[in-house]
Amino acid sequence: MKKKMNIKRTKLKYVEVYEEILKLIKDKNIEPEETIPSENELSRLFNVSRGTVRQAIALLKEDGILYNQQGVGNILLDPKKNQKMGMESINVPIFDFNNVEFTNVQFVTEFQPAGIKMKEFFERDENFIIMLINVKYYIKDQVAALLMYFINYDEVKEYDLNLRTKSELKEFIDKFIVRKIVKSDLNFQGFKARESIANKMNIHVGDYIIYFSEVMRKQDGTVAFYRRSYFNPNYFTFYMTRK
Questions:
Q1: If DSSP states are collapsed to H, E and C, what string results for 68-124?
Q2: Greatest CA span in the chain, whole angstroms?
Q3: Residues 93, 116: contact at Cβ < 8 Å?
Q4: How far are the Cα atoms of 130, 206, 207 from residue 194, in angstroms, in the given order?
Q5: Per the confidence metrics, is the pTM higher than 0.70?
Q6: Among 57, 107, 160, 192, whose CB has the most other CB atoms within 10 angstroms?
Q7: What is the domain partition of the chain in residue ranges?
Q8: Judging by DSSP bridges, how do beta strands 73-76 and 104-113 pair with one another?
Q9: Is residue 53 within a helix (H) or strand (E), and if so which, with residue range?
Q10: CA 17 to CA 47: how far, in whole Å?
Q11: In Å, how far are 177, 179, 236 from 153, measured between CA atoms?
């Protein structure tokens, strides 16, 4: 009679870190809407790579335990809030996947009439004005990422915004626009940069870039805004966690 082998199954490292972060949240009595330690701190605490910590945090977001806020960090989600997280999250992904810390962020705002393509994205036939916010994330003198928010100006007029103030624009995007979104129709691809994008990102024509195109929808299904995101792959590592 053959003897059965006892096979010991070990957990993936990022799953172990996932469980350790949950334990840390409990032991430190971290309350909802409070930040957890940074990725670097967690990396040192658990003696693992920052990439492993990011995978664990991505899983925590997917499970609706954490969410990320730009410039603040990873925050413990209040379970009373009905927000989409993880793979359904519409938060800007660059703070989850950047390999190098950003040194500067630049906002530029402009207005333009909606063309045929924008009318298609916004599913509207009548004429309206688009507020375009260009957000560039720098690592020293190099543009690491370019995010372009195309917003129906009707969504903006109700707010008394100083469009020249970076902090107000950021708050408007984070709180008044992004928080309204419950669904994101996402298109993801990689391609060689054309001249217009190459000039905006200070790269060469033909350099490879990663591109996200997203249509952001509110609870009633209407389009709140459309976003194009361009990433220099030298500064980002993207991954997906599937269940």
A1: EECCCEEEECCCCCCCCCHHHCCCCCHHHHECCCCCEEEEEEEEEECCHHHHHHHCC
A2: 81
A3: no
A4: 23, 6, 8
A5: no
A6: 57
A7: 13-76, 104-231
A8: unpaired
A9: helix 50-62
A10: 10
A11: 12, 17, 32
- What CATH class has 13-76? mainly alpha
Architecture of domain 104-231: 3-Layer(aba) Sandwich (3.40)
Q: Quick one: how many helices (H) and strands (E) in the chain?
A: 7, 8
Give residue 32's identity as a one-letter amino acid code: P
Per residue of the chain (243 residues), give pLDDT as tens. 444 434 343 567 888 898 899 999 988 888 888 899 999 999 999 999 998 898 888 888 877 788 877 678 888 877 655 343 333 333 455 555 666 777 888 888 888 999 998 898 888 888 999 988 888 888 888 999 999 989 888 877 766 666 666 666 777 776 666 666 767 788 888 889 999 999 989 899 999 999 988 888 877 888 888 889 999 988 877 655 544
Residue 136 tokens read as 């560039």
